[in-house]
Amino acid sequence: MSDIELRHLATMAAVADEGSFGRAAARLGYTQSTVSQQIAALEKAVGGAVFDRPGGPKPVRITPLGTVVLTHGRELLAKAQAMAAAVERFRAGDGRVDIGTFQSVSNALLPLVVRRLRDEHPGCDIRLFEEETDRPQVHELDLMFFDGRVDGDVEHRKLLDDPYLLVARPGTFPDGPVRTAQLDGVPMVAHPAVCDQARMEQALARRGVRPHVVCRTAGNETVLSMVRAGLGSAILPRLAVHSADVGSDASLSVHELRPGLPPREIFLLWQAHRTHSPLAARAIEIAVEVADGIAERA
What we know:
Layout: H1 6-18, H2 21-28, H3 32-46, E1 51-52, E2 61-62, H4 64-92, E3 96-101, H5 103-108, H6 110-120, E4 125-130, E5 143-146, E6 154-162, E7 164-168, E8 178-179, E9 187-190, H7 195-206, E10 212-216, H8 220-228, E11 234-237, H9 238-243, E12 253-255, E13 257-258, E14 264-271, H10 278-297
Parallel strand pairs: 3-4, 3-5, 8-13, 9-10
Antiparallel strand pairs: 1-2, 5-14, 6-14, 7-11, 7-12
């Protein structure tokens, strides 16, 4: 049975549909002898005749064995055609891409990437997985946005630097830049101490600055709501500040820090040595272009 080939089954289906070897040959673009050879090879593989050949103008008739072979053969042909179509769509980019992300990227950068991907490939399947973690599971995804470098079997592409800004209620600090030394002991609303948040707080500590963290929450909107409520100020990456349109909010003021803190670095990660699908490769290209545009406007 291992000698059965899809071309043998396709020829058999053509003979069954047309009722003769000659018409099947014309439909397939074969010679009649080629059709005869392929049916003979199929019959040898299945161990019996698949057609009765009455001769003359009478049509060939499928045998009981041939009915079994043709029923399963048509299923295999349909699956092969579906696979060929799927491969074609994959090569064109209309496949599936799984992307890991985190909230400020999800709000500011990723929507632009997704919109362009869907405009170019309307049939694509984009799946997003958002998580705030300091141990990204890159191997489970095609691509992952992450705010830091990752050791191990991972490749990366740096997208942009994301400087930190101070967000406070108006009047909490004088207008203009705020010196980081002024933040020592100041009530602060902060993200959980994972990912780049921990690195930012360590950078402050090395300068002898230890704000008094009164609340930790993973949500950018919750951080800003607590700042509006007067619970404390917040140090947030520029991407998070701009995506929340804080500049147009009269209940908040934004300050640069002097001297500035090391910026958060945003990377696109993927498992090393992975062959990208055309869709994933295009997603990387678009992400780089979008990040460049954001950096230029900053």
